[in-house]
Amino acid sequence: MSDAERPSAIGQALLAISDQWTLLILQRAFLLHTRRFADWRDQLGMSESVLANRLKELVAGELLRPEPYREAGRARTEYLLTERAIELWPMLVEIWSWERRWVPRRHSLPELVHETCGSRTDVELGCASCGRAPVTARDTETVRAAATFAQVTVPRHHRRTVRGEAERDPLSYLPDTFELLGDRWSTVILAAAFLGMRRFADFQSELGVAPSVLSNRLRRFTELGVLAVEEPGARPRYRLTGKGLDFFGIFAFVVEWAQAWYTGPPNTDLRVTHRACGQPFRPCLRCRSCGRAISRTEVHFVVPEVLPERRLPLAGTA
Ligand SMILES: [Zn+2]
Ligand SMILES: [Zn+2]
């Protein structure tokens, strides 16, 4: 692919993960160490063709690694998270935390245990460059190069969305995140809002998004309480609500991961700076109970109905 056709690092990352089924497949691999076709199919109620298609994409995108095994004398394949995929763990924990803060639901969410201090806890966003926490969107400054969002939404085959049953499943704690991160246009529009875009015409000209797609996403974001309309009328202005601004933590982990694992053409990076230290903002998660930075191998989720006594660390490495 030539530079002109290649999306930015963030664009490539969104092509790899910005899909509802893909996020659920990865989430099950992290939480339950799922690695076999039939297990994902049964846990998620997915059709075999959609699952086969997503697994193929995840392998091609180097997020899952196929590994042969034998069962009842037959050669079969299981799929393990690659190092690249495992580094998505703080994004998944931050998604859990954001959903817990902002999305009311009928069933309780899994609980996060920090083994270092023994607490059932929550996380807060910190800056790994200077060690300060908490850090919010307002404590940072994001600058993008002109072409950051070019080619992000190259056409792909039809995306099938996840059915509503996921809502009843205590492990499927992503309902609002799906709408923001499970669709590339949505994520890009939200990113543009973080960069200060406010008006319909600005989103449209900056992102090259079709007006119908843009108005559909802006309306949905307003319904979800992520954006609020200021100055309604012919030229409405949109602003991020508290819920929308708080999604910054997830956004920051996506940006960090994208720029660590993908290379875009020159001049397509996004730079997030932590104002307090003046250094690049490197997001990290701190335990709200003990204040220490958490690492993947020191936390696990407890899901009373599903994982009563099991202590599974995040991510299913062999
Ligand atoms: Zn800092
Ligand atoms: Zn702790």
Description:
The chain has 318 residues and is α+β, with helices and mostly antiparallel strands. The chain has one domain. It is built from 12 helices and 11 strands. The protein has helices spanning 9-17, 20-32, 37-44, 48-60, 83-86, 89-102, 175-181, 184-194, 200-207, 211-223, 242-246, 248-261; strands at residues 64-71, 74-81, 111-114, 119-121, 123-127, 140-144, 227-230, 237-240, 270-274, 283-287, 299-302. A hairpin with a 6-residue loop joins β7 and β8 (237-240). The longest helix has 14 residues, at 89-102.
SSE inventory with pairings:
Blueprint: H1 9-17, H2 20-32, H3 37-44, H4 48-60, E1 64-71, E2 74-81, H5 83-86, H6 89-102, E3 111-114, E4 119-121, E5 123-127, E6 140-144, H7 175-181, H8 184-194, H9 200-207, H10 211-223, E7 227-230, E8 237-240, H11 242-246, H12 248-261, E9 270-274, E10 283-287, E11 299-302
Helix pairs in contact: 1-12, 6-12
Pfam family, one: HxlR
Keywords: DNA-binding, Transcription, Transcription regulation
Protein name: Winged helix-turn-helix transcriptional regulator
Structurally, how many domains make up the residues?
A: 1
Present as ligands are: zinc ion
Query: Helical proportion?
Result: 25-40%
Order of strands, main sheet, comes to: 4-3-11
**Low-confidence sequence ranges:** none
Characterize the main sheet: 3 strands, antiparallel
From the N-terminal CA to the C-terminal CA, the straight-line distance is 34 Å
What coarse outline follows from CA principal-axis ratios? globular
Structural class by SSE content: alpha+beta
Protein name: Winged helix-turn-helix transcriptional regulator
Pfam family, one: HxlR
Domain HTH hxlR-type: 6-107, 169-266
Keywords: DNA-binding, Transcription, Transcription regulation
